[in-house]
Amino acid sequence: MTTLISRIRITALLCSISFSSLSALAGETKDAGGGGAMENRIEIKDFAFNPQTIKVKSGEKITWVNRDEEPHTVVSVEKQFKKSSALDTDQEFTITAGAPGNYTYFCSVHPKMTGTTVVEK
Ligand SMILES: [Cu+2]
């Protein structure tokens, strides 16, 4: 009887130890993510999108930031996402990648500026 009780106690103790180390691990994993979801950044500089082609997963965010002194826009050729307003210097524009496919886009102020986001499942 005593043995049984002490066994139960030991089991309970072990359980609580492994439980707390599990949650510690989970906490670490969360922290390692560091400030959130995958960020896909495209810089607009010298009248070009950089990188010109970017691969992302559906559901991820894509952010454009204008590093030029000129205003630029981000407009989907096939209207696959809402177009940006004219971005001033250091202004950002973010979309969430939707359905898989190639999203070609351009700058409506300088239509020769083009880029592609390849959205994968
Ligand atoms: Cu432009």
Mean pLDDT, to the nearest integer, reads: 82
H/E element order: HEEEEEEEE
Hetero groups:
copper (II) ion
Residue share in helix: 25-40%
**Tally of helical runs:** 1
Beta-strand proportion: 25-35%
Segments where pLDDT lies below 50 for 5+ residues?
14-36
Sheet of most strands = 4 strands, mixed
State the total count of DSSP E strands. Answer: 8
The termini sit apart by 58 Å
Shape: globular
Cα-atom radius of gyration:
24 Å
Major sheet: arrangement of strands: 2-1-4-6
List keywords for this structure.
121 residues, alpha/beta, four-stranded mixed sheet, 34% strand, globular, binds copper (II) ion
Can you walk me through this structure?
The structure is a single chain. The chain is an alpha/beta fold and 121 residues long. The model is unreliable at 14-36 (pLDDT under 50). The protein has one helix and eight strands, in the order αββββββββ. The strands form two sheets. Strands 2-1-4-6 form a four-stranded mixed sheet, with no helix packed on it. The termini are far apart. It is globular. The structure holds copper (II) ion. Residues 72, 107, 109-110, 113 line the site of copper (II) ion.
Quick description:
The chain is built from one helix and eight strands, in the order H-E-E-E-E-E-E-E-E.
Compile the SSE list and pairings.
Layout: H1 2-32, E1 39-45, E2 48-50, E3 53-57, E4 61-66, E5 75-76, E6 92-96, E7 101-106, E8 114-120
Parallel strand pairs: 1-4, 3-8
Antiparallel strand pairs: 1-2, 4-6, 5-7, 7-8
Copper (II) ion is lined by residues 72, 107, 109-110, 113.
